[in-house]
């Protein structure tokens, strides 16, 4: 089988809303950039939103690279079939292990450093900020976008695939979660955010939800900015922000609050 080269996105334009795949180019000089590789039935869905704003600018500036592997290319027979009926019966179709296996091995052959292999799945471990930080600190990630009833379990077992979920809900495919995961990682790369402190102060970075934010005008529809934020007293502002973060986390995410207490409460002696 003749396999077309993996397409990579990155350097001509960030106007993805007009012609998203104009961001595609092959550039060996990007070997040291953070690599995001996506195995998908819909490569035309990329870069999508990743080609806009900060992530799009970082893509154009060579801070990271995006490649797609078209799963259909590795399909069986004249019609390039990628799925079949579930063993044991049941509704829907399942992605074939031989087809996905060929796609994975093709993706890995193009890597100078092996990246984590992640399957976007509603039954996976929850995506967290800590996971994004860990992935962003590495060489990149290879993502598998599922479709239909999912992926043959033997692929997950054989290639030691990590399953990751974006939440307790089901989508028609993994392309939207893949873009969300990549976005969460890319914004943490050096040079992507204009102010590195932004990433340090936002929700989940400290185990708590972020405090409320305000800006001009000082009065809007009879709503004031809290006086403390206009006081210029930085210690009081930080204390107010801390209390707000704690209150929001306690009320909205008792699971995070319990974890926060577990790490901050000193054991009795």
Structural class: alpha/beta
Provide the gyration radius in Å: 22 Å
How many domains? 2
Profile the largest sheet: 6 strands, mixed
List segments where confidence is low: pLDDT < 50 over at least 5 consecutive residues.
1-5, 11-21
Strand order of the largest sheet: 1-3-2-7-6-8
Task: Give a structural overview.
- The chain has 269 residues and is of the alpha/beta class.
- It folds into 2 domains: 7-186, Alpha/beta knot (3-Layer(aba) Sandwich), CATH 3.40.1280.10; 202-264, tRNA(m1g37)methyltransferase, domain 2 (Trp Operon Repressor, Chain A).
- The protein is 31% helix and 17% strand.
- The protein has 8 helices and 10 strands.
- The protein has helices spanning 53-60, 97-109, 129-136, 153-158, 175-186, 196-201, 234-252, 254-264, and strands spanning 7-9, 34-40, 64-70, 83-84, 94-95, 117-126, 140-145, 162-165, 219-220, 223-224.
- The strands form 3 sheets. Strands 1-3-2-7-6-8 form a 6-stranded mixed sheet, sandwiched between helices. A two-stranded antiparallel ribbon has the order 4-5. It has a two-stranded antiparallel sheet with strand order 9-10.
- Strand 2 (34-40), helix 1 and strand 3 form a beta-alpha-beta unit.
- Helix 7 (234-252) packs across helix 8 (254-264).
List keywords for this structure.
single chain, 269 residues, alpha/beta, Alpha/beta knot, Trp Operon Repressor, Chain A, six-stranded mixed β-sheet, 10 strands, 17% strand, elongated, disordered N terminus
């Amino acid at each position: 089988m003749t396999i077309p080269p993996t397409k990579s996105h990155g350097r001509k334009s960030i106007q993805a809303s007009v012609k998203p795949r104009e961001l595609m180019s092959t550039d060996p000089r990007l070997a040291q950039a953070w690599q995001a590789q996506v195995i998908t039935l819909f490569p035309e869905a990329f870069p999508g939103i990743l080609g806009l704003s900060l992530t799009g600018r970082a893509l154009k500036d060579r801070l990271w690279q995006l490649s797609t592997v078209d799963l259909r290319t590795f399909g069986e027979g004249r019609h390039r079939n990628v799925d079949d009926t579930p063993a044991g019966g049941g509704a829907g179709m399942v992605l074939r292990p031989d087809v996905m296996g060929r796609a994975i091995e093709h993706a890995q052959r193009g890597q100078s450093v092996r990246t984590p292999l992640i399957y976007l799945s509603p039954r996976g471990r929850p995506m967290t900020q800590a996971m994004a930080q860990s992935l962003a600190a590495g060489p990149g990630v290879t993502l598998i976008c599922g479709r239909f009833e999912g992926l043959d379990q033997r692929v997950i077992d054989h290639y030691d695939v990590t399953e990751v979920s974006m939440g307790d809900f089901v989508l028609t495919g993994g392309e939207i979660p893949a873009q969300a995961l990549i976005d969460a990682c890319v914004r943490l790369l050096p040079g992507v955010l204009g102010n590195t402190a932004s990433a340090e102060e936002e929700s989940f970075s400290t185990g708590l939800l972020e405090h409320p934010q305000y800006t001009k005008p000082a009065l809007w529809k009879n709503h004031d900015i809290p006086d403390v934020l206009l006081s210029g007293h930085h210690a009081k502002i930080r204390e107010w922000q801390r209390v707000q973060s704690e209150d929001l986390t306690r009320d909205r995410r008792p699971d995070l609050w319990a974890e926060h207490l577990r790490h901050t409460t000193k054991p009795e002696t």
